[in-house]
Design brief:
- This protein is of the alpha/beta class and about 280 residues long.
- It has one domain: TIM Barrel (Alpha-Beta Barrel), CATH 3.20.20.150.
- Helices cover about 45% and strands about 15% of the residues.
- It has a nine-stranded parallel β-sheet with strand order 5-2-1-11-10-9-8-7-6. The protein has a two-stranded parallel ribbon with strand order 3-4.
- The protein is globular.
């Protein structure tokens, strides 16, 4: 049986207008085991000034690793999203983020399927995504790093389309980050979806969607920051029960819009995970 671990995507700091160190401090104070930092190329003014949570990959990765270690945190993944159908942007970015992941001690990087070029056909986009993923996999495989494809855009909007991407490249490096909120917004049942593919899922974005947002935005958007887990439409007991029966560990990385939601999500999910895993032991 696998173990369900609890983490926090640092994007909650974005709407708080706070930076990386602040987000790390809050995650540790709340009690999270894992964090999911965002990385970027070059220099970014708001991050450097402490108003945004992303870290530059021009900085020494050991600085990020030490920041996590000093707070008793582990890194579940690097949020290093790049447009897979734009290899001129994505290939070198993903290569660098994979090498960066090795040095910070992250087992995987996070990617998704969009946005796509404005002038390409669907078949051409699949070819471009295949090129990007193959080049990334050639760097990831010998380093033991996973490439987690997140449910986020039109090419990951249904189980069938996600599996088509997963089959573009024959590589053990490819895995899935199922985002519960995004998959729900794309008019799927994330509980059934997880039950179908749990063997491929090594990381999850624990995202809940409020009843109000679900009524207003489902079928109209494919992604957004969520409310506190337990306050929305997702059946977390069913999600955690499915993960607890898997033959591998999975990190539930909370992705929400505020510090308050991060605290509430931790309290709710920690108790639920302890209850479900205690019942399955």
């Amino acid at each position: 049986m696998g173990t369900v671990k609890l983490g926090l995507n640092l994007e909650f700091a974005r709407l708080e207008n706070q930076g990386f160190d602040w987000a790390m401090d809050r995650a540790a104070e709340i009690g999270y085991q894992y964090i999911e930092p965002m990385v970027h190329w070059g220099r970014e003014l708001l991050s450097a000034a402490g108003y945004f949570h992303s870290r530059s990959m021009l900085d020494d990765p050991l600085i990020l690793k030490k920041a996590a270690d000093d707070r008793g945190l582990r890194i579940s993944s690097l949020s290093s999203h790049a447009p897979l159908a734009k290899p001129d942007v994505a290939v070198e970015y993903l290569r660098q983020s994979i090498r960066y992941a090795v040095e910070v001690g992250a087992p995987m990087i996070m990617v998704d399927d969009g946005p796509t070029p404005t002038w390409t056909t669907e078949d051409e986009n699949y070819t471009l995504m295949r090129y990007t993923l193959q080049e990334a996999a050639l760097v990831a495989e010998p380093r033991g790093i996973k490439i987690a494809i997140e449910t986020h855009g039109p090419y990951t909007a249904t189980p069938e389309r996600l599996q088509k991407i997963m089959k573009l490249v024959d590589s053990p490096a490819l895995t899935i980050n199922l985002d519960t909120g995004n998959s729900y917004l794309s008019e799927n049942d994330p509980h059934e979806w997880l039950e179908q593919i749990v063997g491929q899922v090594s990381h999850m974005h624990a995202k809940d969607i409020s009843v109000e947002d679900a009524k207003r935005l489902r079928g109209k958007v494919r992604g957004m920051l969520g409310c506190a887990c337990g306050d929305g439409v997702i059946d977390w007991e069913r999600i955690v029960t499915t993960l607890a029966k898997a033959d591998h560990d999975v990190v539930l990385s909370v992705e929400c819009r505020s510090l308050d939601a991060a605290q509430k999500s931790y309290t709710y999910l920690r108790r639920l995970i302890e209850s479900v895993q205690g019942a399955t032991d």
